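Marked as duplicate of an earlier ticket. Keeping the data here for the record.
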Amino acid sequence: MTDHPHEPTLPPDELRTLFLFEALNDAQLARLSEAGRVERRLAGTRVYEEGDPATCFFVLLGGTVAMSRRVQGDEVEVSRTAQRGVYGGATQAYIAGEFSQLYMNTLTAVTEAEFFVVPAEVIATCVREWFPMAMHLLEGLFLGMRATQTIVGERERLLALGSLSAGLTHELNNPAAAAVRATSALRERVAGVRHKLAMIADGRLDGSQLHDLVELQEDAVKRSAAAPDLTPLARSDAEDAVADWLDEHDIVGGWDLAATLVAGGLDACWLDQIADAVGEENLESAVRWLTYTVDTELLMCEIDDAVNRISGLVAAAKQYSQLDRAPHQTVDVHDLLDATLTMMQGKIPAGVRTVKEYDRSLPPVPAFAAELNQVWTNLIDNALGAMDGTGTLTLGTRRKDGYLIVEVGDTGHGIPPEVRPRIFEPFFTTKPVGEGTGLGLDISYRIVVNKHHGDIRVDSRPGDTRFRVYLPVDQAAPRAAR
């Protein structure tokens, strides 16, 4: 321990006022009083640091402290409290020999704080001597729970990753397949353009005619880019008119060409310009050349759209995972919700309608963005499970009393009143055996309440269940340990 201003000890009567020691007898209190000492730490200083040898047991006497863990190099705050009597440090000293005795987290004094400090070996000896049966029960509970949480937590993460990966792969496959198909068709159209151009330019047309034809090509490209979306009935009528024009001019397979020409915004009046430019004897080659031109432009637009969709999905995946971003940042919750929906799109049944009721005027909020995405994932997943493939999923945002509220609603079977008080308990689940671990809502509760100092509430009845997440709008960023 480093030197800090301290008093020699804390009297037994004062120790008895701490909930951890209130049931000890006089001799036990005297032993702890003699072995311990009072220490003060300045605001912003570390009481102990994760990974260091766990040499002391700390009990908070006054002030505010924050507990944090290191996650892939980032300092993540897990709790903050000013409750007198809370403890930390060498809390597993009684399991000596079972695993390395290191501090499992970092404790930081947010304000000036005072602690009752007991050496780890004293706590270990006292627990083993005073509570032998309880020690064995705690030892088994601790080691068993740690193993269970490790196994179940890994399985939960693998299931979540597999589900999201399957959804993302499904969403990526559609535009990727479209791009492949369009690229294959484009290769054929380009070959057709070269062939027809050779026929047109083999000396049959003079320079003036070629010039007019090239101008028509440029005009066709412009019309294709600005082609309006027609209703099925209007498209059918337009294709009939163009096909009739092609048949009247003895162009073979006119009906097949008509669909492409209409999709490119061309009509019979425009086709008259081709006849005027090249004459009847070269009309069919010119029309087919221009049709290939329009088809090529449409295919390139299709490829561009597919690539943009892929790029959008990748961007959504980065937004969801918060790759290359600080763990705590000011975020727009609507971006997070949209990214989560995109990642889960493959998991949303065809019979479920998604409704967004966003208040886009809401300000950004300070948050751990990647972890909020985990909350949205858990709530949306539960909502989808409750609807059995049919219903309405509603995502809404609003502001009330200094909080930004995110609401996830579903039209499923609802949560029975008798189990509602237990839904945030770890390992509690209403799903059939093997289909749920019972950790989703527990994790969500800890992320929202402990890390963001917010709240999760639920209202439920058959046909209308709503989870509301309350996030402080003006919450200061959690203090990073120094």
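See parent ticket for discussion. The longest helix spans residues 132-200.
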